[in-house]
UniProtKB/TrEMBL annotation:
Name under which the protein is recorded: Uncharacterized protein
InterPro entries: TPD1 (IPR040361)
Keywords for this protein: Signal
Signal sequence bounds: 1-23
GO annotation, biological process: cell fate determination
Length: 125
């Protein structure tokens, strides 16, 4: 009986170790950061804004959804954002890789306050 308990304990500890190595479980929605700034360029007399979405997780995330009610841009952003009503799905590749940025620009009179709504955290490929 003690041998079975020891085997079970070893299995659980091994799984916990592998999970930590892969980065699973240590990622939170707050680890996906949105930062924006003006580029200094004007397009059709409107300022251009750079948007940077950074994945601070140690694992890949997928299906990053941002709030975007009322968002519009003079320039195309559909290569980066798929807008469905008030939600925008980040489209730049399937995954946001660990410690990487997805950067794009948009043009409008004022900065838009994007918020991360949800994401699939620490997905396997």
């Amino acid at each position: 009986m003690a041998s079975n308990a020891c085997k079970l304990l070893c299995l659980v500890l091994s799984l916990a170790f592998v999970t930590q190595l892969e980065g699973y479980g240590d990622c939170q929605l707050s680890d996906i950061i949105v930062k924006q700034s003006r580029t200094g360029k004007l397009v059709q007399n409107k300022p251009e804004w750079e948007m940077k979405v950074t994945n601070l997780c140690s694992c890949k995330v997928k299906n990053v959804k941002l709030s975007c009610a009322g968002f519009s841009s003079v320039t195309r952003v559909d290569l980066y954002l798929l807008k469905v009503r008030d939600v925008c799905l980040l489209r730049s590749g399937t995954y946001a890789y660990p410690h990487s940025d997805i950067v794009f620009t948009y043009v409008r009179d004022t900065i838009y306050d994007f918020k991360v709504l949800s994401a699939d955290l620490c997905v396997a490929t």
